[in-house]
Write a structure and sequence with these properties.
Elements lengths: L1 H7 L2 E8 L4 E8 L10 E10 L5 E11 L2 H6 L2 H25 L25 E3 L4 H14 L3 E4 L8 E9 L7 E12 L5 E9 L14 H5 L1 H20 L32
Antiparallel strand pairs: 1-2, 2-3, 3-4, 5-9, 6-7, 7-8, 8-9
Length: 276
């Protein structure tokens, strides 16, 4: 049943092994795109307690394991995205087939326990863009934040840098220098033409940072800081969405991460170390 279900989902059986604990391990290879040099291998184990007629009494089907998971994580990000979009739904379909075919044989005291692995497209870090250069992406990001009221501080890197940090300052008191330090990090991989493949943009700032003193004249500005900062941040994201949405990685959508905490809020106390 396991073998047929996985073969139906575009897997091929490689081997069936018996472990010392009497569990049976099925090894399948995923029939991925022939152009891929990498072939994912999936292990599925079953513990078999057989009666005198060699029938399950009972047998337990365990969760799968990707045998070459370290190699998967070492693939370029775009290859990981393409592989996940094909491999995980195929595994889900195999388990769904096993559940359907084996429903009449499930012990009434138990239920088929499997959590679907494919939950839609996700990025490794943040909004992922392809098809434009890092300098062009940087220009769009800086323009979006600058038009929203952030002041650029720094952010220089070579055209094909693997990592770029753009620093901004958001004024606590618009009439004075100094403000909230806000950063955007860009993690990048590139295609043969030097274009993002992809470049992923992450918000990177400490909401608990110590803010500069407001002074008597800045009390009103300090009171409105959180609302001004939130509005400016939202405006910057909306500007990036408008200018960069056409460069989003295929099958992905533009997202705005939730704010981690109100700006200037007290830092939470450290978690106590558990005694061992």
């Amino acid at each position: 049943m396991v073998n047929k279900a996985f073969q139906k989902s575009d897997f091929s059986l490689v081997a069936v092994g018996q472990q010392k604990n009497k569990s049976t391990v099925f090894e399948f290879k995923f029939n991925a795109d022939p152009k891929w040099r990498f072939v994912p291998t999936v292990l599925v184990s079953a513990e078999e307690l057989l009666d005198g007629k060699k029938k399950c009494n009972p047998c337990y089907l365990r969760f799968f394991e990707i045998k070459n998971a370290p190699e998967v994580k070492a693939l370029p990000w775009m290859a990981q995205y393409d592989l996940s979009a094909r491999l995980l739904p195929a595994i889900d379909n195999a388990y769904a087939t096993i559940e359907s075919v084996g429903r009449e044989h499930i012990d009434p005291a138990f239920r088929f326990d499997y959590k679907r692995q494919w939950e839609g497209e996700k990025t490794l870090f943040g909004n992922a863009f392809v098809g434009l250069s890092l300098p062009s992406l940087k220009e769009n990001i800086v323009r979006a934040y600058q038009s929203a009221g952030f002041q650029p501080i720094e952010g220089e890197a070579p055209p094909k840098a693997p990592e770029l940090t753009l620093a901004f300052s958001f004024p606590v008191d618009p009439a004075k220098e100094g403000g909230v330090v806000y950063k955007v990090k860009v993690l990048s991989q590139y295609d043969a033409d030097g274009h993002c493949y992809p470049c992923e943009v992450i918000e990177y700032f400490d909401p608990h940072q110590q803010l500069p003193p407001a002074g008597l004249s800045g009390v009103v500005s300090r009171a409105s800081l959180e609302s001004r900062f939130t509005a400016a941040r939202n405006a910057a994201y909306e500007s990036m969405r408008t200018d960069l949405e056409r460069y989003l990685r295929p099958r992905s959508v533009f997202s705005v991460p939730p704010k981690p905490a109100p700006l200037g809020s007290p830092r939470p106390p450290p978690m106590p170390v558990a005694a061992t």
